[in-house]
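Example record for the data management plan.
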Amino acid sequence: MFKTSPVREAPIPLSPRSRSPLQVTVLPSDTRPSGLGWHRRSGWHGDSCSPWQDTLRNEKSRTRSQSQGRTAPFHLGKLKYNNKLEDSQGDIAVILDEYAEFNRVMLSRAEAGSEGRGPVPAHGEAASKWPCTSLPGRMAAFEMIADLCSTLRFRLRSMAKEACGRASMFYLVETGKDPFFASVKTLLKKDGRVEIEPLSFCEARRPDADRLLVVIRNEDISSHIHNVPCLLELKHRPNVVFAGVDSPEDITGRMYQELFHTGGFMVSDNELLETVTLGQLKEVVKVLEKLNRSGRWKWLLHYKESKKLREGVRADANARKKHLILRSCQGADLIEVLRYHACDSSASPGSQYVECLLNLQVERVGARFAVYLTEKPSASREVLESKGILVADVNAFLGTVQKAAAPFRRSYW
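Corresponding structural encoding:
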């Protein structure tokens, strides 16, 4: 018969991290109630457990009389999940912390109990006696794990219901009366989506709480993508996804091409490199470096701009320093000099820049933002921003673009 002794360790204080409404009472290892029925469960019958069972029966009355003078039960919070789910991720983390804390307490109490029961049996006796002494602790741990798993499943189900409960809407860019568009609408509505106009979506009270899928046929991208209403405002919203499809089934099969998903590019006007100060140029480069940590960004220089700066290197010290900065950025893949095209002609009208920017937006359709950098933003803002292109001067670019790009963090290059 094994000798038992009172647990001499004081209760272990609860970790400050454990703030969940979960409460579990862990009794000292030698005061386990026999009502748990651990010795009657399948898989644990046999003669090998009889010494432990005899010990429990013979000392049952003595244990009850001594339990009042021993260590008080250890409490860890009460299960209570009647409140509405608000911070599911935090709750789940706390539940896992509760289990880690419980496991630590159980191990410490098991060590204390093993000291009271005496030395570990010899190797030949281990199979018949020693495993049974830890069965009550094992069963309590199993029950605790089952409770934690059920709670975790409840939280995950609540998160899924909350996510699915958010309204899912769509807008289809229709360029004719092709049956293709009717088929796409039918499939989207069958999938539970509601059709809405972009303007109505943007004017909603809580547009960030809803999701919008903008669908366009791939063959229509080059000529119609810039005609999507409120395109620039939609680009600023991370809950808006743009999808290019070849067939209606691409939507249901999630086989569509995602457009405008991250990163961006900027194009400067013909005079910016001449008027920008050396300090401003360095700040623009720093911002580009920061933007490239979370998404691919490039400064696209026209051939004419680059050539004009090179020609002024010998006569102007500032031009030489600017040229060195741009060359280093080009080597770091932050700047790209475009091939010679219509914009670089001296006879090209100002409207040529608008067409150029629209073409670049189509060519780099994976980039979320297209920025036109100019010291005269008011002259072209209305036209370009209605086509989805952000117009800004250097100071506005430095102050706003990082915040706008922050929610979009995947690389598209």
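Summary line stored alongside the record: The first helix runs from residue 50 to 58.
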